[in-house]
Amino acid sequence: MTNFATTETKMRILTFDIEEWFHILDNESTKTEANWSTYETRIHKNMDRIFELLAEKNQSATFFCLGWIAKKHPDVIKRIDNLGYEIASHSLMHQLVYEQTPSAFEQDLEASIKTIEDAIGKKVTTYRAPGFSIMEENSWAFEILIKHGITIDSSIFPATRGHGGFASFGQATPCIINMKAGTLKEFPINLFHVLNKPFIFSGGGYFRLLPYPVIKRLTKQSPYIMTYFHPRDFDGSQPMIKDLPMTRKFKSYYGLHGAMHKLERWLSDFSFIDIRTGDKMLDWNGAKIIQL
Q1: CATH fold for the domain made of 11-291
Q2: CA nearest 115: which of 124, 106, 104, 125?
């Protein structure tokens, strides 16, 4: 068993958030299901790229799936399951948690779990919030996750970011969150400190922005890595959401054309596991406990 307090064993976890290319948060024209109906479907071709790469590199991964995708395209969710990959919830309707009431969050969570479970006939016990939008002020969400049978979470982004972010969490390796309702095993996003400032490199726009040699060097130096990718991260021909501010356009579209080649190199140079394997590897008796 691995305990990060006492060992240098490397743990690199590969995950994908399964959503459409237009599921861009904190933007009016991509916020609701009515908006989504105006955009073309690209999930199938984007998933094909991911499946082909994972098969070629013989790598496992955890797929955080939107309940909306399971409802709209159940074949996508069933294919993930049929290929033997781990499936988790990424909410139903891809809304920021801090914009929801506890009641609305609970209804969305329940529906996402049921929709995914109906598609694959298996229990869903792992969750990630859209945009890592569980923060200190809405940590009540963890109570609701525990209530509905979630035992593993990966919603903590332990630094400041545009939306979401839990800079005061104080832990960027696996730990246990202790709530009144019980406990959750937490797999947060990893940080690398540069000049005492937190630095993220393992997913999304950060991965697309950084040169591969930098990513490779940081990977070698990090005992724990939690990746987070989206199908759209590798779709260089996707349309551009026109009403995005210039800074958001840069974050959302920079590096799309080279991202798949960069991921191919990463998966060739390093071995990755899914979250359920990481859970089994860890000695949770020695894990740090975060009281919220």
Answers
A1: TIM Barrel (3.20.20)
A2: 124
